């Protein structure tokens, strides 16, 4: 079974790793020549040449023949007449051939909640690519295979884009239909939402927002829509429908896919940084999150589906990646596909393919080479094209709240725009602290044991409080659409109740004083702002799919529209003020209140997520004009500065730290003076678990594996000298020893990590484990500054590094050790820092 896990050529390449079975999925394979540099030893250089030349001993079907092995290794296979383990192959005699897959090792190599070894997997894929290039001249099929390998990345992201666009279209249509089902039904065709139902009628004009084809629930039950009894029935149906949808969503998540809850972006960022979370991107998570996303949004909760769409797109990318062994069997390469998938998720969420690529680059991805940039752009483009072709909202756009402002903004408006940015930063910081406080309380109290009860309670409270206010009652996307757009002469809502003079030829129709309905709407919007802010604190983090983009935009759009109406009335009532007199012509409106809503939405979203460039591009793509890029940039930067002054972490980073994921943010700066000796484990002369190269028996190594939980063990010359020889992974060691035990190797056999045993050995034949030994582990000295160590973990993607002093092994540093130390420097309480 494990024979297919191995790159025999890589096993002979002493410059990176000699092991064959690996503990996890890795990432893209780039060169690892930095391990050797120009100062490699002659023996190691010769070993490297043998490794590359050994590719010639590999058959087209992946068979490694005996003549591809050095003669010394063929002799070792017959040592004392005993079958020796070759790097995890149980019971393989020296004259046998071993079947393997040159594309890479199969999935399942890393344990759950472990970090991948980027450099190891990058080197592994490099060897796979060398093999394919070397074999392309042997036949036509090998040439075709090389072309397939070169284009498989583009084909993979093409499929991801097509499927992501189709799934997003289904989700948008289903969510819109279920949202309208809270208010009524189309009896002639129940599968139509309200707009589609009214489009199917022959009526030209509708009374209010109703048409004869659409029946509200009071009308279905025989009551008048405008009567007191009809209002009570509508209220009751709204609450009951919301409870049913919320209950169904949480039960599906709890029963079938616990990972389908939440936004998913914190976990996606952690996974893209090299962390393994088994099942988080699986098919059940994809199915349940897609369904429950529609249910949760339709329940009227203060959440959105835009954030979860990123998770759904990454699930699609993960599943499709397994169709291509180049990506499915290498976690590093797979992360290229996941980065492109994240871009596609934002693309279908906002209809912003360029913003999606920048989101993946700025916010989500940890490793983003140039080829991933182009593939992400291609994937986002395809997904946006597919979604536009489906046209889920019937407006020829991929979002419901697409808006296009035509009136230009005025220079002095930069002041209120910056003011909105400051408010957005304050609101974002306040929301992050409140939500993290509540989520921490949920994790540490008994409330976390009753997720279904919590969802039902929050859904009930939201429905009861939202229905009386017409702006909190309407779906969030529809509310954003109302706030973003300017009022036309035919608008019948209170927010557009202006004292218009349609008979005057000297005054523009859109220019008029606010009527009583506008002031009523402003009070209602202020109540909506407070209500949405409070209820979103309790909603985000529950065990249902819940995005934060739309609630943040609702808060910002509400705040911005209030400020915009205020500026509009100032310009109308005081046209002679110096700020208005030079820019505003009498009789014409120069203030676009909908633009303030757009800028406010960007400000609050930036304050909550701390996004900058990608957020500006997303908002520009939403408005369809680059003429408003300066107001959005000013507000977003102000929100970023104020938010960072009040709290360094965005909402996603805060949830990463709350959940204890080992995420080392590449944007964080380190300003302490710690050394590697302050971080390494063990400290204070605590015994260190090591393996000697030729003096420990199989039983002793097995006992060490049972007594410890380390992911790997340094191999030293002897316990007295502690001179470092290499590093062996726990999983490789377990597989090798298990195979040897099945072949009848006794516990008294020596475990050899050298070519031949030193001295005379009178016991049972030794077990040769040199093949699974990493002879070139990353090492640092105990006086290395921690800043350098952090840069090594960030830029090289290390799992661990060994600490030495004058060549003697002192300890080991893992990514979790670094994160734990950094947190300890902040809180001075190491025991309260949770990491998986």
UniProtKB/TrEMBL annotation:
SMART domains (UniProt xref): CBS (SM00116)
Q: Does the keyword Isomerase apply?
A: no
Q: Where in the cell is it found?
A: Endosome membrane; Membrane
Compositionally biased, Basic and acidic residues: which spans?
32-53
Region listing for Disordered, in residue ranges: 21-59
- Principal subcellular localisation of the protein: membrane
Q: Where is the CBS domain?
A: 680-744, 769-830
Per UniProt, what is the membrane topology? Multi-pass membrane protein
Q: Which UniProt keywords apply?
A: CBS domain, Chloride, Ion transport, Membrane, Transmembrane, Transmembrane helix, Transport
Q: Where is the composition biased (Acidic residues)?
A: 22-31
Report the GO terms under cellular component: early endosome; endosome membrane; Golgi apparatus; plasma membrane; synaptic vesicle
- InterPro entries on file: CBS_dom, CBS_dom_sf, Cl-channel_core, ClC
Pfam families under this entry? CBS, Voltage_CLC
Family indicated by similarity? Belongs to the chloride channel (TC 2.A.49) family.
Against PANTHER family, the record matches this protein to: CHLORIDE CHANNEL PROTEIN
Q: This chain belongs to which protein, by name? A: Chloride channel protein
Q: Which organism is it from?
A: Amphibalanus amphitrite
């Amino acid at each position: 079974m494990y024979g297919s896990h191995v790159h025999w050529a890589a096993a002979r390449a002493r410059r990176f790793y000699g092991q064959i079975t690996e503990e996890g999925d890795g990432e893209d394979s780039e060169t690892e020549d930095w391990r050797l540099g120009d100062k490699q030893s002659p023996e190691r250089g010769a070993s490297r040449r043998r490794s590359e030349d050994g590719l010639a001993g590999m058959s087209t079907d992946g068979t490694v023949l005996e003549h591809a092995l050095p003669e010394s290794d063929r002799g070792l296979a017959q040592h004392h007449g005993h079958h020796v383990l070759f790097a995890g192959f149980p019971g393989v005699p020296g004259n046998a051939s071993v079947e393997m897959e040159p594309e890479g090792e199969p999935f399942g190599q890393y344990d759950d909640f472990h970090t991948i070894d980027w450099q190891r997997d990058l080197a592994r894929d490099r060897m796979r690519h060398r093999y394919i290039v070397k074999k392309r001249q042997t036949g036509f099929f090998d040439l075709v295979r090389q072309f397939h390998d070169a284009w498989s990345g583009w084909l993979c992201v093409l499929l991801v884009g097509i499927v992501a666009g189709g799934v997003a279209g289904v989700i948008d249509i289903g969510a819109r239909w279920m949202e309208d089902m809270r208010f009524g039904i189309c009896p002639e065709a129940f599968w139509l939402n309200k707009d589609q139902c009214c489009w199917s009628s022959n009526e030209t004009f509708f009374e209010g927002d109703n048409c004869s084809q659409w029946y509200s629930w009071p009308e279905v039950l025989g009551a008048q829509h405008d009567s007191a009894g009809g209002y009570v029935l509508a209220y009751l149906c709204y609450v009951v429908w919301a409870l049913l949808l919320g209950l169904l969503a949480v039960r599906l998540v709890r029963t079938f896919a616990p990972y389908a809850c939440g936004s998913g972006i914190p976990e996606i960022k952690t996974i893209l940084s090299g962390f393994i979370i088994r099942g988080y991107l699986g098919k059940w998570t994809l199915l349940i999150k897609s369904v429950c996303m529609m249910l949760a949004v339709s329940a009227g909760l203060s959440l959105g589906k835009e954030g979860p769409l990123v998770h759904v797109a990454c699930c699609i990318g993960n599943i499709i990646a397994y169709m291509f062994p180049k990506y499915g069997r290498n976690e590093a390469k797979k992360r290229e596909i996941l980065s492109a998938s994240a871009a596609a998720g934002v693309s279908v969420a906002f209809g912003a393919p360029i913003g999606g690529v920048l989101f993946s680059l700025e916010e989500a991805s940890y490793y983003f080479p140039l080829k991933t940039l182009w593939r992400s752009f291609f994937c986002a483009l395809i997904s946006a094209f597919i979604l536009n072709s489906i046209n889920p909202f019937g407006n020829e756009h991929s979002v419901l709240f697409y808006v296009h402002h035509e009136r230009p903004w005025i220079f002095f408006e930069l002041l209120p725009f910056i003011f909105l940015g400051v408010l957005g930063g304050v609101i974002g910081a306040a929301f992050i602290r409140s939500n993290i406080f509540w989520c921490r309380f949920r994790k540490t109290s008994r409330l976390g044991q009753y997720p279904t009860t919590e969802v039902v309670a929050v859904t009930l409270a939201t429905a009861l409080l939202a229905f009386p206010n017409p702006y909190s009652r309407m779906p969030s996307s529809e509310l954003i659409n109302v706030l973003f757009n300017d009022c036309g002469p035919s608008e019948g809502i209170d927010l557009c109740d202006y004292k218009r003079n349609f008979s005057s030829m000297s005054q523009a129709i859109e220019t008029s004083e606010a009527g009583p309905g506008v002031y009523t709407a402003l009070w209602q919007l202020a109540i909506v702002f407070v209500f949405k802010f409070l209820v979103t604190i309790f909603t985000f983090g529950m065990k249902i799919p819940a995005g934060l983009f739309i609630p943040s935009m609702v808060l910002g759009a509400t705040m911005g529209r209030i400020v915009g109406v205020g500026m509009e009335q100032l310009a109308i009532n005081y046209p002679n003020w110096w700020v208005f007199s030079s820019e505003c012509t009498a009789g014409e409106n120069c203030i676009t209140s909908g633009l303030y809503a757009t800028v406010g939405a960007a400000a609050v979203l930036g304050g909550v997520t701390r996004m900058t460039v990608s957020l500006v591009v997303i908002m520009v793509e939403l408005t369809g004009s680059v003429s408003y890029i300066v107001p959005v940039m000013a507000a977003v930067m102000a929100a970023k500065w104020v938010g960072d002054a009040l709290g360094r972490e965005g909402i996603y980073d805060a949830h990463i730290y709350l959940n204890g994921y080992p995420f080392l943010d590449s944007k964080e700066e380190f300003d302490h003076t710690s050394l590697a000796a302050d971080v390494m484990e063990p400290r204070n002369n605590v015994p260190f678990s090591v393996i000697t190269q030729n003096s420990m028996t199989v039983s002793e190594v097995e006992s060490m594996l049972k007594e410890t939980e380390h992911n790997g063990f340094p191999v030293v010359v002897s316990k007295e000298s502690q001179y470092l020889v290499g590093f062996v992974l726990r999983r490789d060691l377990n597989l090798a020893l298990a195979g040897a035990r099945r072949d009848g190797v006794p516990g008294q056999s020596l475990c050899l990590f050298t070519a031949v045993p030193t001295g005379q050995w009178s016991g049972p034949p030794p077990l040769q484990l040199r093949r699974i030994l990493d002879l070139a582990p990353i090492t640092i000295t105990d006086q290395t500054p921690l800043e350098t160590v952090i840069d090594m973990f960030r830029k090289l993607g290390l799992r661990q590094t060994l600490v030495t002093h004058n060549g003697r092994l002192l300890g080991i540093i893992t990514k979790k050790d670094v994160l734990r130390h950094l947190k300890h420097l902040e809180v001075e309480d190491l025991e309260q820092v949770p990491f998986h």
